[in-house]
């Protein structure tokens, strides 16, 4: 009888969280909410709620609440829980790559995976109920190049159009290659602002990424004005462009053409959709 009372109280507590607009909680919060219960008893009750589909653990000691309207899916969209989850982990973050591009209307289709950029140490992917969130580690996550976007549960940090463009090039392998990058850039360019691509911004971007981005903007996407601005700001920063292949893992040969401005060996044919 005592166990049933415990279960009922935990059910009520979770329902109260929903009524307050919260969609997640930590194991520590649950334990602190029931100081007279042992940790084992709380975990047992949470396991029962998990079996019923009322909650789901997406990380050790962290649970999502699954409201009735999401019961059939058994999981929430990452846009709903990522901000609270990263705060729980005490990590800076932003949603990037194709997912950020989608917020700007520059993705042909909704990405099947979520890409979140955060700091080190490396964080394992979150894979639950058909949802996959990949985490990419960077040495610096700077708020000045991020934007807050409203979601149904709060806000979400996403990369600015300019940072999105740079990340797409730097992590092109993660999204399907440079042809896909060029296709997204052709639409993302409408949201990019030249004044945002300045010396301060470029200091955060690898020179190799700037070279490849510049080549794509000028030769493939045919946005020479933006490419000229990128090159001009790079000169102000005294960046040195060493000769690099357009596709890092592509073929290498002295017979391949070289773009002298960006010092890029054109070792792949880019085809936009």
List keywords for this structure.
three-stranded antiparallel beta sheet, single chain, alpha+beta, 273 residues, elongated, 10 helices, four-stranded mixed beta sheet, Arc Repressor Mutant, subunit A
Helix content: 40-55%
Q: Using only CA atoms, what is the Rg?
A: 23 Å
Q: What class would the helix/strand composition place it in?
A: alpha+beta
State the major sheet: 4 strands, mixed
User: Runs with pLDDT <50, length 5+?
Assistant: none
> What shape does the CA trace take?
elongated
Beta-strand content estimate: 15-25%
How many DSSP E strands?
Answer: 12
Order of helices and strands: HEHHEEHEHEEEEEHHHHHEEE
Q: What distance lies between the first and last C-alpha atoms, to the nearest angstrom? A: 63 Å
| Count of structural domains | 3
Question: Which whole number gives the mean pLDDT?
Answer: 93
Give, in spatial order, the strands making up the sheet with the most strands. Answer: 4-5-7-6
How many helices? The count is 10
Furnish the topology, listing elements before pairings.
Elements: H1 2-19, E1 24-26, H2 27-33, H3 39-52, E2 55-59, E3 62-65, H4 78-89, E4 93-95, H5 97-103, E5 114-118, E6 126-128, E7 131-137, E8 146-151, E9 154-159, H6 161-170, H7 178-188, H8 199-202, H9 207-220, H10 224-236, E10 244-245, E11 258-259, E12 264-265
Parallel strand pairs: 5-7, 10-12
Antiparallel strand pairs: 1-3, 2-3, 4-5, 6-7, 8-9, 11-12
Helix pairs in contact: 1-3, 5-6, 6-7, 6-9, 9-10
């Amino acid at each position: 009888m005592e166990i049933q009372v415990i279960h009922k109280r935990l059910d009520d507590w979770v329902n109260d969280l929903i009524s307050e607009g919260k969609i997640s909680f930590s194991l520590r919060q649950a334990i602190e909410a029931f100081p007279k219960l042992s940790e084992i008893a709380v975990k047992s009750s949470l396991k029962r709620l998990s079996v019923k589909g009322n909650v789901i653990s997406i990380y050790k000691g962290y649970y999502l609440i699954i409201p009735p309207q999401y019961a059939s899916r058994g999981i929430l969209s990452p846009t709903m829980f990522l901000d609270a989850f990263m705060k729980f982990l005490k990590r800076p973050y932003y949603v990037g790559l194709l997912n950020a591009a989608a917020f700007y209307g520059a993705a042909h289709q909704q990405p099947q995976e979520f890409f979140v950029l955060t700091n080190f140490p490396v964080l394992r992917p979150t894979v639950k109920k058909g949802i996959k969130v990949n985490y990419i580690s960077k040495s610096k996550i700077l708020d000045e190049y991020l934007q807050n976007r409203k979601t149904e549960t709060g806000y979400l940090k996403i990369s600015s159009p300019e940072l999105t463009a740079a990340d797409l090039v730097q992590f092109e392998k993660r999204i399907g290659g440079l042809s896909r990058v060029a296709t997204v850039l052709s639409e993302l360019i409408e949201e990019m602002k030249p004044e945002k691509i300045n010396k301060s911004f470029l200091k955060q971007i690898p020179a190799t990424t700037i070279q490849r981005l510049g080549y794509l903007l000028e030769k493939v996407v045919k946005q020479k004005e933006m490419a000229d601005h990128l090159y001009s700001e790079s000169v102000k920063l005294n960046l040195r462009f060493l000769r690099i292949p357009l596709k890092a893992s592509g073929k290498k040969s002295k017979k391949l053409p070289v773009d002298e401005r960006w010092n890029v060996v054109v070792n792949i044919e880019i085809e936009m959709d």
